[in-house]
Amino acid sequence: MKCKRCRKAAAAVDLPSHHSAFCPECFFVFFRRQVEEGIRKFRLFSPDDRVLVCVSGGKDSLVLWDILMELGYRTEGLHIDLGIEGYSARSREKTLAYASSRGKEPIVVDLHAEGVPIPEAAKRARKEECSVCGTVKRYFFNRVAAERGFTVVATGHNLDDEAARLLGNLLHWDADHLSRQHPLLPEAAEGLVRKVKPLWRVSEMETAAYGFLKGIDYVTEECPMSEDATSLIYKEALTLIEEEMPGTRRRFYQGFLDPKNRDVPGNPVADACREDASKDGKDIGEGGTPRKCNSCGAPTYAETCSFCRLKERVTKPQGRS
After folding, report:
1. What whole-number distance in Å separates Cα of residue 11 and Cα of residue 9?
2. Is 298 part of a structural domain of the chain?
3. Which of 37, 106, 271, 319 has the lowest tally of Cβ within 10 angstroms?
4. Any idea which of 139-143, 195-199, 245-249, 273-277 has the lowest mean pLDDT?
5. For residue 17, which of 167, 176, 241, 223 has the smallest C-alpha distance?
């Protein structure tokens, strides 16, 4: 099969959802344009911004850092060592190796040193690992960005991630999460830094192809803590539909983001989002007016931020069983 763009070279990447197939060079052009359009459409950031890219060592975050550097944005990487035996060491190694190859030295937060390694924190707090991990990562994403003068925090969530999250939120009619599911969460008072997802237009397969063709060495294994994550079930369900009807995943998520669809009379998603947006007393990123955490000073919508509440439970002396 020939490349659908140049009509000369052999196609290396087949994209049924776009009715296209590209040779490596033309695929890079396609990928770059998708990311550029994703940034432009919602004005995620500008060349004047300082972007903190959260890099886990996996394909999506390293590809994100790579493409943003290629596009000329001012970026630095942040790696959070989750304290997961074996997996975290490999993830950190891949991150440091990639950064070194690009003349960069990422900021590293070690959760062992912070007293909240994810497996131990989840066990002591009696909460699911993914929930604890999300709380801790969001806290340090914002804290590092605010302390070091970054204007934007960028994560590597791709189209598959966002569509799966949307499916889960719709199945549970989670108005709270639906109201803030967007590639852009604006900055707010008390040091709440803007959060963006520049890869929202590209699929997981496309980021994997970009990483492979670029020779980016990343961790290929899934986080061992995520084996029972419901998001994987939603991803699998959407993949089955996508195989039969290419482009469904893209239309599903982009349709949700389209403002015209929010204006349809009786739209339950829009109604739920509007109703939830009026609520207060929530934590970071959940609406309302931010205030400073009574314990650490981080932005929160409660008296004490979720990270400090978690850390209090983790460090509290354990009673006898």
Report:
1. 6
2. no
3. 319
4. 273-277
5. 241
pLDDT-based confidence at 261, cuts 50/70/90?
confident
The pLDDT of residue 206 is: 98
C-beta atoms surrounding 8 within 10 Å: 9
Query: With 80 as the cut, is the pLDDT of residue 288 above it?
Result: no
Instruction: Return the structure tokens found at 59.
Output: 């394909």
Q: How far is CA 169 from the centre of its chain?
A: 16
* Partners of 14 in the β-ladder: 21
Structure tokens at 245: 């009807």
| Whole-number Å distance between alpha carbons of 161 and 239 | 11
How many domains does one find in the chain?
1
Sequence-distant (6+) residues with CB within 8 A of 170 are 178, 269
Phi and psi based region of residue 162 (left: phi greater than 0; alpha: psi -120 to 50; beta: remaining): alpha
Q: Does 198 reside within a domain?
A: yes
The amino acid occupying position 199 is L
Domain that residue 200 falls in: 43-216+228-268
**Domain contains 138:** yes
pLDDT band at residue 318, thresholds of 50, 70 and 90?
Answer: low
Give yes or no for a contact between 116 and 94, defined as CB atoms under 8 angstroms apart.
Answer: no
Residue 3 reports pLDDT greater than 90: yes
- pTM, two decimal places: 0.90
In a domain, 84, yes or no: yes
For helices 159-171 and 248-257, the axis angle rounded to 10 degrees is 70
